[in-house]
User: What shape does this take?
Amino acid sequence: MNLAGTPVSDRRKDQTKNKKHRASLFTCFASHTAKGAGHPLTFVAAVLVIVGWAACGPVFGFSDTWQLIINTSTTIITFLMVFLIQNTQNRDSTAMHLKLDEIIFALDGAHNTLMDLEDLEDKDLQAIQQRYKSLAMKAQDAIEDEDLESAAQHIEKLATVKQPGPKNGGSARGKRRAEHSRKRG
Assistant: This one.
């Protein structure tokens, strides 16, 4: 639903009917472990384990074995959690990129060349960022100067920035419309 409460799509209903994909055992385990690790009760449990370990110190005479138990336990848990959490972060990042790519693809006037920015080198990303930042600053300056016509022109330039290279971008929908118009006319 949109902000007005009007249904925008019934795609969610269709997804629940056709939900036949199953996550792998590792994916399921990694997701549940990452969610559990971030839960407040997990933090409380970890604090209680540390308090229990510290309370046992006098019983074991603060021996090397007593210290080795906590050091080994925390090292193993940390080592394994790094991989589980990284796996979850990678999947979340990929899903987010795919969702953003879908939005870019669906918007008229959007540049499809921006869809794979994550694959560019840092210097290329910085150059693109600088170009957008410059255009945004010009539009902001025009707004502050109350030159709304100039601000509108700069905002329009922001919307039409083209990626350098052989492709000039544009939305797929716009390209289909242009192609359809050529066939008709």
